[in-house]
Amino acid sequence: MDRQLKRNTPKRKTSILSYWTLRYFLILCIGFTIIVAGALYWIRTTSIEKGLKTAQLLGLEIAEKVTGTEDNLYIPPDLDRLVDKRTKLFNTDNYFCIMVLDNNNQLIYSKPKMTQQDVYYRLSDDLSEPRNKKFAGVTVNVTDDDQMLGKVWVMQSKKSIAYNPETMLVVCILFVALILCGWFTIYLLSRKLSRPIRQVAHAAEQIRNGNYEVNLDLNTREREMNELVESFREMSIRLQQLEEWRALSLAGVTHELKTPVTSIKGLVMAVRDDIVSPEEAKEFLDIALKESERMERMVADLLDYNAMSAGGVAVRRERIDLNLLVGEIIYQWKIAYEDKSPEIELHTPSGTLYTIGDALRIQQIIVNLLNNGLQAASDQATVFHIRLREEADSLFVDVQDNGTGITIEDQPKIFERFYRGEIKKRRTRGLGLGLTYSRLLARAQGGDLTLTSSGPEGSLFSLNLPRWSGPEKPQVEPSYRTTANA
Fold it and tell me: Which end of the chain is more exposed for a tag (fewer CB within 10 A), N or C?
């Protein structure tokens, strides 16, 4: 249990500035430590090689000064002065020494002064190499006419050869300088990048708290940061517009739904309280019934739109004879509005037009266009022209009415949710979802719904549907009357 609680404990959050500067500093330290270690190893190896070569040159010079016979070596009196002069070129320590041995490995000369026992202490048992691996040494044979008289040993510690204090100081200074430069660079970059991010985060917090009027006055040289700030600024403006639109839409929907409820309530109360005569009571009830039907349609539109937006409306994809379907839709719609006697002229090309889609959804779109045209009709008789046409891989259903048309100012907005023009607001009540829902249905079938033209003589809407590209038509064509009424 304690382990589970410990695992669910949230991690401590740090700023981007401290997060990246600390980690980059650690990476720099690790990386430069590896580089310096490799450089020191290379310096050590190279210095030892050069030191041994220099020591060998000193041994050769001493061997040339030493003379004698096979049993007796002669050390010149100025050898000490020569050795002191040459050793100034070496980085000597307490372990630096020069030894001259005869053929019997007896110590003849040493610098500094040494005993025979010191020789055995410094050299291995066979006197062929230094006893301690921390020391390095070179030997030069003393010869006279190709006769070996002895040998000269020049020994020194590897530490004195490999590590020069001046070199080590320079390496350390460079190491520290590079780390500080790298850390300072990433600090400046992180600070510069974190500043706009902090401001965007602060603006996001303001938007979360309901304040959409944020001020992001940033202009950086980085294209990506400018794009981020500009996108966030546009998003905040869009959110503010959506919030204002939501409030207005909610108020509009509430008003449109409240109006028929108020009318129904007043009419029913008048009938209940016997304020009106029996004939007027019947008329009041008819009006209340029409208002309830209108409110029912508005609620249905709202539910249909919400279901479509949430992806809850299934759209079938089947082959449809468009000529037959549109004829059935016109027949059923004229029956429903027989009292208003609308006239519909159907223009179809020769041949059969097949589309791929959902017959019920196509009916909803066309019926909505016919209803809108009927509402927009002036006092004269309503006349519709429906034309079917084909273009390449698309089929079109053009619906032309003779209504009052749509103003130029309203045309770009008629497919927006809850939008209703001023003329339509005064003439009929509704939620402004019919065209929005119709376009969603058209696009769900792979087509589209557009306003082609509008003016005082009427409006022309075009329904675009994909053309069927499958096998030939069956022998028996189905009737869409049952499907359309579903």
Answer: N
